[in-house]
Amino acid sequence: MRMTLSTLNWRRREMVRWLVTCATEVGVYALDSIMQNWFTLFTPTEATSIVATTVMSNSTIVRLHLDCHQQEKLASSARTLALQCAMKDPQNCALSALTLCEKDHIAFETAYQIVLDAATTGMSYSQLFTIARYMEHRGYPMRAYKLATLAITHLNLSYNQDTHPAINDVLWACALSHSLGKNELAAIMPLVVKSVKCATVLSDILRRCTLTTPGMVGLHGRRNSGKLMSLDKAPLRQLLDATIGAYINTTHSRLTHISPRHYSEFIEFLSKARETFLMAHDGHIQFTQFIDNL
Questions:
Q1: Half-sphere exposure of 67 toward its Cβ, with a 13 Å CA cutoff?
Q2: Which pLDDT tens digit goes with each residue over 190-209?
Q3: Sites in the chain below the pLDDT cut of 70
Q4: Is DNA damage among the key words of this record (predicted)?
């Protein structure tokens, strides 16, 4: 294991599992030993995804007939390992660390802080969105919201990327913000407008935001009886203007490369643009001017 730690070997994963199986056969001391010295034997990813996960599994507890003291000793070593791995390789180990530390409040808080510290420089938007969704699933909507906003700042979705894999995550983040309330929605909108330039995605977000009141369903399922948000005021005004602007820019861009076989698709795109223009109080006039300029 030490000889192949820094080199690629197709049998390593198999051998990691085999070593953990051997340590399980030997007993608690051997399992604790390989976790204490994980950095000499395993990569951070191997240590969290295979070693610690196996040690904390119910099958290991049952197989070794562990008492409560022994279970806690192994669990403590596994959590320490997970946090060390998350510090060393947050991109690949942060989510595993959070999962392994769920039952220990201090360790879980530490893992979450590691994610926040790494979010600005060491993690991609897809990794942050994955952890944000995990946080929502665990019942931490405000933490999910915080991570989602950080993820959006890493994102750059251009005008022609209407099938980008991050679109569903952006829609989810906006829906989460909308469910939390007007303040959260107002805070995330400038980030969305800055990172997303695709007109169809922006119009989709806009329509979803106008269907229900922000914070309509509270954290405990209580419904708030508020008014729908106005498109003439922040934060939706900024989103509406950005969406109209995106349709204008995209239309001009498409016209420079248009051919007869794209005509029907272009007309369909213009009809979608018109629907968005008409959401503004002077939308009919704006759309007429837009068509005249074309």
A1: 1
A2: 999 999 999 999 999 999 99
A3: 216-227
A4: no
